[in-house]
Design a protein that fits this description.
Length: 64
């Protein structure tokens, strides 16, 4: 049986909306100073749907 208290502590999921992709990248970049578990993406009704996984967040943020 898996112990939920073992391992790293996970912060609760937070969802924020931004008026521009640049603003979202600035916010994600600031979170990367605290943790590597950062993801981003579009929310409904924005199309096409896009998800940036934690493994790809560094390259998505780039050199803002």
């Amino acid at each position: 049986m898996r112990n939920p208290d073992a391992g790293h502590q996970r912060a609760p999921r937070q969802t924020r909306t931004f008026t521009s992709e640049h603003d979202a990248k600035v916010f994600a970049s600031s979170l990367l100073d605290q943790t590597e578990d950062v993801s981003a993406g579009t929310i409904n009704p924005h199309q096409p749907r896009r998800v940036i996984a934690p493994a790809a967040i560094q390259s998505w943020v780039g050199d803002i």
